[in-house]
Every structure is written in C-alpha cells, then in structure tokens.
Design goal:
The complex is a heterodimer of chains A (about 150) and B (about 375). Helices cover about 25% and strands about 35% of the residues of chain A. With about 150 residues, chain A is an alpha+beta fold. Chain B has 15 helices and ten strands. In chain B, strands 1, 4, 5, 6, 7, 8, 9 and 10 form an eight-stranded mixed β-sheet that branches. The chains are: A alpha+beta (about 150), B alpha/beta (about 375).
C-alpha cells in the first residue's frame, strides 16, 4: 500500500513520539494478516500493534493515514470472562476483516499500574481480538493520568 | 457568605481525606472506607440557611458543601446538583422553593406530537443555558477556591428523568402504555442530550464524571421490561456514546429506588475504569451490600448505602447499626467500596445521624485487603 501522511498528521506523530515507519509497518502487518477492523460503510480500516505497555492504533483509507492513537492500559479480555447475551444493541460501526463478524461494543478488563478495571472495547466475537475507539483512547488517557498521579 | 468569612480548610485533613477517597479506584492502600453521604442542601442547614438559598447561590453552596465535608470527615468533593436539571434549557419553568430543591412547574412537551418536533440542544447551546451556567458557577468556585475538592461532575439522571423533566410524568407513563414508541423517541432524544451535556463539561474541564442511572425507572413504578426499554437500553447507549466521544472517564450509576427485579441487567451497562454503582432499595428495604458486591464487586466500585429515611428520622444508634452492617459487608469489595446514603442526604437530617454514619465507617471500615 502506498499510504500518504499529511504534514499535519506527521507533526502529530512526532509530538506523540511515533515514527512514520513504525505506523506504516503496523498497517502492513494488519494488511498481510487481516487482523484489523474495517468500517461497515466506506473503506476505512483500523490496524493495531504495539506492546503490553502501549497499544497503538492506525486509522487509514487505502491511500491515506487518517489518525493514530494509543493507550497504555493493557486489555486482558472480556469483563465477566465470556461473551454472554446482553440487553441492548451493542453492534459497532466496525467489522472484523478476518472473519467478517460485526465488532461488538463490550466492557473489557484493562490493567495499568497494577489496577484492573473495565473499559469500553470493540470486540470481535469470533477472533477474540480487542480494540478501542479513538474517543475511548482519549477517555483512557485521562484515566491513565489519574492512575499515574494516584499510584505514584 | 463570601469566601473570606470561612475558616481555612485543614490541609492535613484534606490530604488524608483525598487519600481515602481515591482508594476505591486506584487500589492504593489507605486506612479505612471513605463515606459519601451526598451532601447538598444539607450543608446549608449547617449554616442556618435553607435549601432555596443553597440553590440560588451556587458559589456559596459549594463553599458550604466543602466545609461540611471537612466538618463530617467525608469525601472531599464539592457536589452541586439537583434532580430537575435540563427542563429549563428547553423552555420549562422552574419554581424556587424554600425548603427543597427547585422544581419544574411547566414542561415544554405537552403532546405526543411535541415529541416529534422537539430538538435536542447542541453542546454550545447547553453551555449558554441556565442549567450549565448555574452548575458551572458552582464548579468554577470549587476549582478556584477548593482545587483539591474539585471533580468535574455532570448531573444527567437517566433517560426517564430527563424525559420527565421535558414532559409531565403522567403523560410519559400514559404514553408508555398507549404509545410506547413515543417514549422510545423521547428517551432517545434524552440520551442524545446526555451526550451533548457530558461533552460540554469535558470540553470545559478536560474530564467528566457523569451521574446517570435510573431513579424514576425503578421497580415501584415500572416493570422490568419497561425499565429495560426506556431506561437501561437508552442510558447504556448514551454512556457508550459519551465514552466514545472521549468525555469520560467517570461513570456513576445512581440506581435510586427499588431495583430488586432489574439490578442484574446493569452488570452489562457500559463501564469505564472509574465506575461506581449505587443501588437504593431491594423492595422496601435498603439494598444489601452483600448482594451489591456479589453482582458488581468484580467489575467496579460498589457504593453501599444507609436508608435516607433513617438518616432523616431515625436515631443515631439505628443509623450506626445499619451503616456498620453495610460497611462490614462491603469494605473488602475487590474493586473498592464507598459507604453512603441511598440518595441525597436529607436537607434537615440531624447532624448527629450523619456523624453516626461516619463513625461506623471509622469503627468498622478498616481495610483488610488493600
């Protein structure tokens, strides 16, 4: 893929300590493995990568990087341990590119600095893959800052 | 009373109380369970003012609350809110009352057709409206004068609370039976409004603690299917949208009233790393903390309660006994515990009863696991 990165987004990457090459590798890996979310409408996808200490997401179209965000909280799995029936519409705007299942918005257990609590995740019900949205990453950033301050 | 007329807050107390308060969310060891009796206009009674004065003077209200927190040695947070939020922004009339919080007297939605034509205000309009103007006056005072007691709270209520602040409760309940799809629309709009309101607070302060849940949608007024359809589902969608909009991270599910038949469904409500669940009653009785911890203890912070009627009309010994029972059952809840009251501390509750509540936490709420 030939992904264009605007100067504005490149500056954002630099401000947040990301390297262009790392993000492009992450996208490349998602494209080759199929482990990514794709929009149910349109041609946007979300790739994820990183480590236990930082999960990085790249939102991209076939020709342009649209957004990059990250969180430090490490997702352990579904809150409650299993995907049981719930009583409201939890279908997200995303589908798993690998199996085609619609990604569900469910609570997932997240851990950071020894503290484990639920947070809202995007879950592929078949592949056991977990993602978060860009908005939730913003919420998690506030949560992480509070934990860093209070656990220090 | 202007700020200069208050004695300074004891900084040693504030540091200790702040440590107790954050324990439930961050698993950081502290001595004992914190107590939050949800002090609002009760603070005014300590200063020989009435509820009407409290709600007409949000800056003074927050000073009274913060000093009441110190007096009682409870959660150091400058709360300011009341139940009838969000009507006035949409054209409702508010009546200021001497001995209780403001009440709505004339609501903007009169007919089912009005629901179709009703438009939810955008975030920028809500910021200029009477609810947030007043609410932010209190929060700004707290941030400036009591920065360590500041929490950017948005009082949302649940979708049924917002709906019945827009339309008369008797109309909403009639539509639930005759035209339930009208209430669906109303609750959807209430949910959209909740998202815009949370975004306003988040934009202003960089974070947001939303108070939501279900007060009117309780087992005494609605059946379980109605609670699911008009409260749990639209509230869950709204909370999910709020979190997806980056307007978290605090979520406080305040399930006031009787929730015997519906409390289990709230286990699957959207949660953030800073979620509290509080349930008022189990039938006619206070909701047992053992039951609360069993359902929610492995998910979020549990808020165990003492009956507000007891705090208002009981003896200190009765309050102490119930508080003791609840705190012993909840203090070691895996994701933290707060002891409080089933709803707002009654305006004219005897101060000795509030003290009895706190004393029970001090005597029996020592942490064993943290």
């Amino acid at each position: 893929m030939d992904i264009k990165i605007t100067e504005e987004l490149d500056n954002t990457l630099k401000d947040n300590g990301f390297k262009q090459e790392e993000i492009l590798d992450l996208i490349e890996s998602a494209e080759s493995s199929g482990t990514k979310l794709k929009a149910r409408e349109g041609d946007i996808a979300i790739a994820k990568g990183g480590s236990d200490n930082l999960t990085v997401y790249a939102v991209y179209s076939p020709d342009e990087l649209l957004d990059v965000y990250a969180h430090k909280m490490n997702i352990l799995g579904l809150t409650g341990g299993e995907l049981s029936e719930i009583d409201y519409d939890d279908a997200s705007d995303w589908a798993c590119a690998k199996c085609g299942e619609i990604a569900l918005e469910r609570n997932v257990d997240m851990t950071y600095m020894g503290v484990t609590r639920p947070g809202p995740g995007l879950v592929c019900p078949k592949c056991d893959e977990f993602y978060v949205s860009d908005g939730v990453a913003k919420t998690l950033k506030t949560a992480e800052a509070i934990l860093e301050e209070k656990r220090a | 009373m202007p700020a200069k007329d208050y004695a300074p807050i004891d900084q040693n107390w504030l540091e200790e109380a702040g440590s107790l308060w954050t324990t439930p969310w961050v698993d950081k060891p502290s001595e004992r369970v914190i107590v939050d009796p949800i002090i609002l206009s009760h603070a005014a009674s300590l200063f020989r003012k009435n509820a009407g004065y409290f709600y007409q003077n949000p800056d003074e209200a927050i000073r009274m609350v913060c000093h009441a927190c110190e007096l009682y040695d409870v959660t150091p947070v400058g709360h300011y809110l009341y139940a009838d939020y969000w009507g006035q922004d949409y054209g409702a009339e508010i009546k200021v009352q001497t001995n209780s919080p403001p009440g709505i007297t004339n609501r903007p939605i009169k007919t089912a057709e009005d629901v179709d034509n009703f438009e939810v205000l955008e975030t920028e309009d809500l910021v200029k409206g009477p609810t947030l103007t007043t609410h932010y006056k209190a929060l700004d005072t707290c941030k400036e004068e009591f920065p360590h007691m500041f929490a950017p709270i948005t009082q949302l209520g649940g979708t049924m609370e917002v709906a019945t602040n827009w339309a008369a409760i008797e109309d909403v309940f009639m539509w639930m039976i005759t035209e339930p799809e009208v209430v669906d629309k109303l609750c959807k709009k209430a949910g959209d409004h909740m998202v815009n309101a949370c975004k306003a607070t988040s934009d202003r302060y960089g974070a947001n603690v939303m108070i939501t849940g279900s007060v009117i949608a309780s087992g005494d007024l609605m059946d379980t299917e109605q609670i699911k359809r008009f409260s749990f589902q639209p509230v869950s969608r709204a909370v999910r949208k709020v979190l997806n909009a980056g307007a978290g991270p605090g979520v406080y599910y305040h399930l006031c009233g009787n929730h015997t038949d519906d409390y289990q469904m709230w286990k699957n409500a959207p949660m953030s790393p800073f979620t509290i669940v509080q349930i008022g009653y189990d039938g006619q009785n206070i909701f047992p903390t053992t039951k609360l911890v069993e359902a929610f203890g492995d998910r979020c912070t549990c808020f165990g309660t003492v009956d507000t009627k007891l705090v208002d009309r009981g003896t200190p010994a009765q309050v102490y006994e119930q508080a003791k029972e609840q705190v012993i059952a909840g203090k070691d809840s895996p994701r933290g515990f707060i002891l409080g009251t089933a709803c707002e501390c009654p305006t004219n509750a005897p101060p000795v009863n509030v003290r009895a509540l706190v004393k029970a936490a001090k005597d029996h709420g020592k942490y064993e696991k943290f």
